[in-house]
Structure formats: structure tokens, C-alpha cells
């Protein structure tokens, strides 16, 4: 009998490699996306009482990752039976790269930090945009993969 | 430059741990609810809360600020960031909804959000005890 993937060191190693790449991507894209808010800091400057900030980096990363995972899993499922190669892609790219790219702990921590800074309305905006944006993006990714699969069959 | 190495190693270890923990939980709960990702995200959020306070704790006990900052970064952005996942949680909620289990889908989406935020707050409080 073959081992379950999560007890097979080759798959665990694959997830570790993918997770390293995904986390690196999260750090780099997250930092870059933070600059998106620069124009808004002119419109809504911080005052002596409140320092305005918003975790746009994590939001962008999580929404992009939700789209990517929706696309990948739907595309793989529509190709039929899971071969060894497809399983490596699903676990290495899906669980590893995209799973490591997105994060829930940072979302939770930043929500707490916004609340601690007295920015309750931004905390609410952050969680609503994350959940609604993530769900919409994921459905979008699924739809893109489904359409591509139908086109392939139609040819 | 060292940040890149630190976040990659932390994220790799975190993702591998998520894969193993999720697999073990999954093997024990074959029912409809994605307990593996749910538990991983709540536990990881508690841990990131604790680790976020580490900077104050370590510098309090005489660790250099630069080292304390790097360790906190490795454990929060690296380890907890790679351990927890938003994309899988989103996909699993959508799958529950697509299979007609709308209440479980909402319970997963809102339950994960509520409990992770609460767990992070608890982690900050627990970590603050040592600071």
C-alpha cells in the first residue's frame, strides 16, 4: 500500500519548496502593493490622534491567491482522473506555492492591530473586502478554468 | 537580503507543517466540514498573536533589537504566514456552497474569520504576559 501524501516525505518536501517560493512571493508582492495606498495618504492624511493605515498588501495577495487556486483546482479537476503528475502539481503548486502565498494569520493579526489602533471601520472594511473579494476572485478563477475546458472540448 | 532567506525558510517549514497537520485531521474526519484548514488557521492565528509580541519580550530580556526583529519576522511573516492559508479556506467554503451545503459554507467562512481574529487577540494577550 502506498503512503498517504502527507506522510510521504517526497510530497512534504514538495510542499516545503512550494511554500518557500509562495511565502517569498507574498513578502515581495505584499510590500510592493503597499505602495498602492500612497496617493490615498495624501487625500486622507493621518492626524496627531489617528495614524491611518490599511493592510492592502495582504488583501491583494489573498485575493490574487484565491483566484489562482480556484483556477488551478478547477482546471485540474476538469482534466479528469488524478495522475501522479497532476497530484504533484495540485500539492506542489496548490498546497505549497499558492497555500504559502496566501495567509489567514496575517489577516487576523492585522485586523486586531487595526482595532487596537482605534480604526474599527477600517478593520471591518478589511475583513469584508477580504472575504467578498476572495470569494469573487476564486469564483472568477473557477469560471476561467471552466471556460477554457469547454473551449478545449469544442475544438 | 537576509529577509528573503528568512521568509522562504519559515514559509517552507510552515507550509509543510500545514500539509501534514491538515492530512492527519482529514484522515480522522471524512465528513463534510474542512476541519483541517479550519484548525490550522485558528492555531496559526493564535501563534502569530503570541509571536507578534515577541519583539518586546526579547528586548525586555536583553536581546538586541535587530535580532529580536528578525526572529519575530521569521516566525510571523515566515512560519505563520506559510502555515495558515486564505486561498484553501476560500475554495473549501465555495465547494461546500456548490454542493448545496450553504450553512456549512457560511459557518466555515464566517467561523474561520471570527475565530482567527479572536485567536490572534488571545495570542497577543498571552504573549503580553511575558513582555
UniProtKB/TrEMBL annotation, chain A:
The chain crosses the membrane at residues 12-32, 52-77, 89-109, 121-146. InterPro entries: FluC. Pfam families: CRCB (PF02537). Belongs to the fluoride channel Fluc/FEX (TC 1.A.43) family. GO terms for biological process: cellular detoxification of fluoride. Na(+) binds at residues 99, 102. Its main location: membrane. It catalyses: fluoride(in) = fluoride(out). Na(+) is not transported, but it plays an essential structural role and its presence is essential for fluoride channel function. The gene is fluC. It is a multi-pass membrane protein. One of its GO terms (cellular component) is plasma membrane. Fluoride-specific ion channel. Important for reducing fluoride concentration in the cell, thus reducing its toxicity. This is Fluoride-specific ion channel FluC. It is found in: Cell membrane. The keyword Ion transport applies. One of its GO terms (molecular function) is metal ion binding. Keywords: Cell membrane, Ion channel, Ion transport, Membrane, Metal-binding, Sodium, Transmembrane, Transmembrane helix, Transport.
UniProtKB/TrEMBL annotation, chain B:
Na(+) is not transported, but it plays an essential structural role and its presence is essential for fluoride channel function. It comes from Promicromonospora soli. GO terms for cellular component: plasma membrane. One of its GO terms (biological process) is cellular detoxification of fluoride. Fluoride-specific ion channel. Important for reducing fluoride concentration in the cell, thus reducing its toxicity. It is found in: Cell membrane. InterPro entries: FluC. The gene is fluC. Belongs to the fluoride channel Fluc/FEX (TC 1.A.43) family. Keywords: Cell membrane, Ion channel, Ion transport, Membrane, Metal-binding, Sodium, Transmembrane, Transmembrane helix, Transport. Na(+) binds at residues 81, 84. Coiled coil: none annotated. GO terms for molecular function: fluoride channel activity; metal ion binding. This is Fluoride-specific ion channel FluC. The keyword Metal-binding applies. Its main location: membrane. The chain crosses the membrane at residues 32-58, 70-89, 109-130. The keyword Nucleus does not apply. It is a multi-pass membrane protein. It catalyses: fluoride(in) = fluoride(out).
Amino acid at each position: 500500500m502506498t503512503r498517504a501524501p502527507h506522510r510521504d516525505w517526497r510530497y512534504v518536501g514538495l510542499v516545503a519548496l512550494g511554500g518557500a517560493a509562495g511565502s517569498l512571493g507574498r513578502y515581495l508582492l505584499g510590500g510592493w502593493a503597499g505602495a498602492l495606498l500612497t496617493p490615498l495618504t495624501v487625500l486622507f492624511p493621518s492626524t496627531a490622534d489617528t495614524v491611518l493605515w490599511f493592510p492592502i498588501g495582504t488583501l491583494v495577495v489573498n485575493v490574487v491567491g484565491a483566484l489562482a487556486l480556484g483556477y488551478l483546482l478547477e482546471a485540474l479537476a476538469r482534466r479528469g482522473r488524478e495522475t501522479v503528475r497532476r497530484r504533484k502539481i495540485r500539492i506542489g503548486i496548490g498546497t505549497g506555492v499558492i497555500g504559502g502565498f496566501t495567509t489567514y494569520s496575517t489577516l487576523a493579526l492585522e485586523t486586531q492591530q487595526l482595532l487596537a489602533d482605534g480604526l474599527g471601520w477600517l478593520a471591518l472594511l478589511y475583513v469584508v473586502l477580504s472575504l467578498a473579494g476572495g470569494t469573487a476572485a476564486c469564483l472568477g478563477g473557477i469560471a476561467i478554468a471552466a471556460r477554457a475546458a469547454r473551449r478545449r472540448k469544442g475544438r | 537580503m537576509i529577509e528573503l532567506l528568512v521568509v522562504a525558510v519559515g514559509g517552507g517549514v510552515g507550509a509543510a507543517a500545514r500539509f501534514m497537520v491538515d492530512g492527519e485531521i482529514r484522515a480522522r474526519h471524512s465528513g463534510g466540514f474542512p476541519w483541517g484548514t479550519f484548525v490550522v488557521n485558528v492555531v496559526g492565528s493564535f501563534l502569530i498573536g503570541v509571536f507578534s509580541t515577541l519583539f518586546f519580550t526579547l528586548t525586555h530580556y536583553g536581546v538586541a533589537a535587530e535580532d529580536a526583529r528578525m526572529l519575530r519576522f521569521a516566525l510571523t511573516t515566515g512560519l505563520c504566514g506559510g502555515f495558515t492559508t486564505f486561498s484553501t479556506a476560500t475554495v473549501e467554503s465555495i465547494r461546500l456552497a456548490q454542493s448545496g451545503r450553504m450553512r456549512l459554507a457560511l459557518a466555515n467562512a464566517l467561523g474561520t474569520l471570527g475565530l482567527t481574529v479572536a485567536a490572534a487577540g488571545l495570542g497577543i494577550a498571552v504573549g503580553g504576559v511575558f513582555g
